[in-house]
Amino acid sequence: MSISRPKSLKSSSEWRSELANTSIEKMKLKVTITGPQVHNVGYRPYLAELAMRLALRGFEVYNDEVNEKQAVIVLAEGDEQRIMRLYNLAMKERPQLAKVDNIKSEEYTGDVTPLWQFANINSATQMNKAIPILLEMKDDLKEMKGDIKAVKQNTDAKPPSPGRDEGY
């Protein structure tokens, strides 16, 4: 008994050939976000997370200065639909503390770092910023814990004031 493939099903080589002939529009875009407060408000991690959600092929974001204003520069590469979603979301949403004056876009022809590679670099950069803050918080918490113990001991050792009702 021989099993034959229905005519409507394509072989893997037929699929590969068809996909090779199918053109998905790729594009590169440079987005410049300027304003009085676009640095140190979480813009780069926000945009990097957005790029990962959109599964862009390439992505970079960095702080710069344009015309003496803070600027966040985004370089993105991917299919046109995803790049336009990135741009539209960047126009509508932003980190809570950001103060933006202008967002502009232009075609970009240079190289763009693969997203996975940028994500690794960005993680290291963000950790290097966070570690000193976390260590300082740890020291502050130790100090606060000591202060709370001292207040508790002082409160426990103090006799009640005369004439105060202890039962309220």
Q: Helices, strands, pairings?
A:
Layout: H1 12-21, E1 26-35, H2 43-53, E2 58-66, E3 69-79, H3 80-92, E4 102-107, H4 115-157
Antiparallel strand pairs: 1-3, 1-4, 2-3
Overview of the structural elements:
The chain is an alpha+beta fold. It has 4 helices and 4 strands; from the N terminus they run H-E-H-E-E-H-E-H. It has helices at residues 12-21, 43-53, 80-92, 115-157; strands at 26-35, 58-66, 69-79, 102-107. It has a 4-stranded antiparallel β-sheet. A hairpin with a 2-residue loop joins strand 2 and strand 3. Helix 2 (43-53) packs across helix 4. It is elongated. It starts with 11 loop residues before the first helix and ends in an 11-residue tail after the last helix.
